[in-house]
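Bit of a strange request maybe. I'm writing a small parser for structure token strings and I need a real example to test against, not something I typed by hand. Could someone generate the tokens for this chain?
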Amino acid sequence: MLEYVVDLHSQDYRFLKGHRIMVQVQSTWFPIIDRNPQTFVPNIFMAQPRDFRPATHRIYRSAARASYVELPVWQGAP
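Reply from user aminoacidic:
Good idea to test on real output. This should exercise your parser:
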């Protein structure tokens, strides 16, 4: 099992009771930052088509290997 901690860049989010969130798993910040070729290139602007490889992400749903997202809950007044 691998644990990944994701920094939300000092942002706080408020979800009202009954609201749901969606988690999107991806290997890049495209189009916010740039594409990720999934291979090392010294300069992303010089990346060639052969540098780009597909990425595989797995989300497990079985009880033995369940993926999950753990979020803190703030108990203070709004």
